């Protein structure tokens, strides 16, 4: 599709596709990273049944995201609809995982299997003008309120998941002379009709049609003088509504319920800017209203100061200011025990870094250039690259050791090295096969659980004698081994807690409940090359 965007405008692209995506959860992080790299905002829903989204940004950025999606053979034919606005339609970028990309809540209904007949916008008028066709608006009541097709039936539903009950009870859908009627259905972009026509086919209807591309495509292609559309079409972004030619309409949005304001709403005593409208006033408590008032107040202050109140730029700038000049760059992955080990020791040594959280399925080029082996952690210094966790540990302890974690030069140093070597060797071997037996063509990992348990029993014996693994206090050895014990324990926590390892269990529990653990396990967004620097640790 050729872009209709021009300079100094925001391009909004709406798209969806029903397609089997068994790996949909793994797609989230890299897709979010691509969107953020191009400063694209909006919402993308991913589910086993496909993708559903509306995103906005500069034309070249939106098309870059679409190109990224279409490089996947399953999404190569992904279609999208475009519209323009001079105001940013979205303030954030979210990629969410869902059970359904549009929630109908009926098992077995799948547009991947079968849907109704598509009708092009230019042929829609002829179909819905036929006297034997029942025309149904599948959208929510507040959407229908501001516009619909002439003669359409409004099911008066508050959510799409209520449509199946309406279909079963609707008089207009009852058989006539022993034959079910022809049914035409429509919605904003076409996605709800995919599900609703599939539902009707399941109920035995044979002649079921839906508007290809939805109302938005109709308003884009059909001129006003030939249109059977009356009013405006509600859209789920800051434009609120659009009319023919997809020009933004006159409607405003209630910031509480996120629905268009009813007629004369602003004159109602139940309307309060940013807090409530006549439609939602009774649905929120006074506590919630006070919270909304404070949010509105902060938004107004930010507007006067001409700063961005929505999103995270200010927080990112504040964190970036904490970074010293030539700060080390740490490529990390939150759950990786090797990366956890590095973060623990860097934190203890007071070494602040720029952290770059990666997605394992989309490793950044800059990390691969620094360390072609492509595993985390990677610490990039001014004069060298450290890509082994123990090298990072020893380097950090040489820079600063305020907690006296180092064992260098002590009688326990050889014991410390041997214990960590045992963890990274035999124990890690069994841990991997216990936690991920399918990767190694194993029916289960129970044999390797027992082998790994021997090492844990050894740790428990040590901890019965001292508070740390090699001495009276925690040191780098505890920090090096704890992330691996954590991973082993979480594979089957009930089994782990049932073992006679009280000292080890207390040691792990104290670690997992500590402030240090909370700092080390702080969640960072996946890094991309255009992201602003983010400091580790996250707070000063």
Describe this structure in words.
The protein is α/β, with parallel strands linked by helices and 540 residues long. It is 38% helix and 14% strand. It folds into four domains: 10-97, Alpha-Beta Plaits (2-Layer Sandwich); 117-234, 3-Layer(aba) Sandwich (Oxidized Rhodanese, domain 1); 252-304, no CATH class; 326-540, Up-down Bundle (Glutathione S-transferase Yfyf (Class Pi), Chain A, domain 2). The strands form five sheets. Strands 4-1-3-2-5 form a five-stranded mixed sheet, with helices on one face. It has a five-stranded mixed sheet with strand order 17-16-14-15-18. The protein has a four-stranded parallel sheet with strand order 6-10-9-7.
Return Rg in Å.
29 Å
The top level CATH class name of the largest domain? Mainly Alpha
- Strand-pairing-aware structural class: alpha/beta
CATH architecture of the largest domain: Up-down Bundle
Strand order of the largest sheet: 4-1-3-2-5
Major sheet: 5 strands, mixed
Helix content: 25-40%
Short description:
The chain has helices at residues 24-37, 59-70, 121-128, 141-146, 163-169, 191-202, 214-221, 286-305, 313-322, 337-348, 365-370, 389-399, 413-435, 446-463, 476-491, 493-498, 502-512, 515-520, and strands spanning 10-18, 41-47, 50-57, 80-85, 93-97, 117-119, 133-137, 147-149, 182-186, 208-211, 229-231, 233-234, 241-242, 329-332, 353-357, 378-380, 385-386, 535-536. The chain is of the alpha/beta class. It has four domains: 10-97, Alpha-Beta Plaits, CATH 3.30.70; 117-234, Rhodanese-like domain (Oxidized Rhodanese, domain 1, 3-Layer(aba) Sandwich), CATH 3.40.250.10; 252-304, no CATH class; 326-540, Glutathione S-transferase Yfyf (Class Pi), Chain A, domain 2 (Up-down Bundle), CATH 1.20.1050.130.
């Amino acid at each position: 599709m050729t872009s209709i965007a021009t300079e100094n405008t925001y391009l909004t692209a709406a798209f969806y596709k029903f397609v089997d995506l068994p790996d949909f959860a793994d797609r989230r992080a890299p897709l979010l990273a691509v969107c953020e790299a191009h400063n694209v905002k909006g919402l993308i829903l991913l589910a086993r049944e496909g993708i559903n989204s509306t995103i906005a940004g500069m034309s070249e950025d939106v098309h870059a995201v679409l190109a990224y999606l279409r490089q996947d053979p399953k999404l190569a034919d992904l279609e999208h609809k475009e519209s323009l606005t001079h105001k940013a339609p979205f303030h954030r970028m979210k990629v969410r995982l869902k059970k359904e990309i549009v929630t109908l809540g009926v098992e077995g209904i799948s547009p991947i299997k079968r849907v109704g007949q598509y009708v092009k916008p230019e042929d829609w008028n002829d179909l819905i003008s036929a006297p034997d066709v029942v025309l149904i608006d599948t959208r929510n009541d507040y959407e229908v309120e501001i516009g619909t097709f002439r003669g359409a039936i409004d099911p008066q539903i508050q959510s799409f998941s209520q449509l199946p009950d309406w279909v079963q009870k609707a008089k207009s859908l009852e058989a006539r002379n022993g034959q079910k009627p022809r049914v035409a259905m429509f919605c904003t972009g076409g996605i709800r009709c995919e599900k609703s026509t599939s539902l009707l086919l399941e109920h035995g209807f044979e002649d079921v049609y839906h508007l290809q591309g939805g109302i938005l495509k109709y308003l884009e292609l059909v001129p006003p003088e030939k249109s059977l559309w009356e009013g405006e079409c509600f859209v789920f972004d800051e434009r609120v509504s659009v009319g023919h030619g997809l020009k933004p309409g006159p409607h405003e949005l209630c910031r509480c319920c996120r629905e268009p304001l009813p007629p004369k709403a602003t004159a109602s005593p139940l309307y309060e800017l940013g807090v409530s409208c006549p439609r939602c006033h009774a649905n929120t408590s006074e506590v919630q209203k006070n919270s909304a008032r404070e949010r509105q107040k902060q938004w107004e202050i930010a507007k006067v100061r001409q700063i961005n109140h929505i999103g995270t730029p200010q927080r990112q700038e504040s964190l970036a200011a904490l970074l010293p000049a030539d700060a080390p760059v740490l490529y990390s992955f939150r759950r990786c025990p090797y990366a956890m080990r590095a973060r623990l020791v860097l934190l203890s040594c007071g070494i602040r870094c720029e952290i770059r959280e990666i997605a394992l399925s989309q490793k950044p080029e800059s990390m691969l250039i620094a360390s072609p082996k492509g595993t985390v952690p990677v610490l990039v210094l001014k004069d060298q690259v450290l890509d082994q966790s123990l090298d990072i540990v020893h380097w950090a302890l040489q820079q600063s050791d305020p907690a006296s974690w180092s064992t260098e030069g002590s009688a326990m140093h050889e014991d410390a090295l041997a214990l960590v070597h045992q963890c990274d060797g035999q124990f890690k071997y069994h841990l991997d096969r216990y936690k991920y037996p399918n990767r190694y063509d194993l029916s289960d990992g129970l044999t390797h659980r027992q082998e790994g348990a021997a090492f844990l029993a050894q740790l428990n014996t040590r901890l019965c004698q001292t508070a740390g693994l090699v001495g009276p206090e925690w040191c780098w050895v505890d920090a090096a081994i704890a992330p691996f014990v954590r991973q082993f324990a979480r594979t089957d926590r009930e089994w782990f807690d049932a073992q006679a390892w009280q000292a080890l269990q207390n040691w792990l529990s104290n670690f997992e409940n500590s402030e240090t653990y909370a700092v080390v396990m702080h969640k960072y967004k996946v890094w991309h090359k255009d992201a602003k620097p983010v400091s580790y640790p996250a707070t000063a």
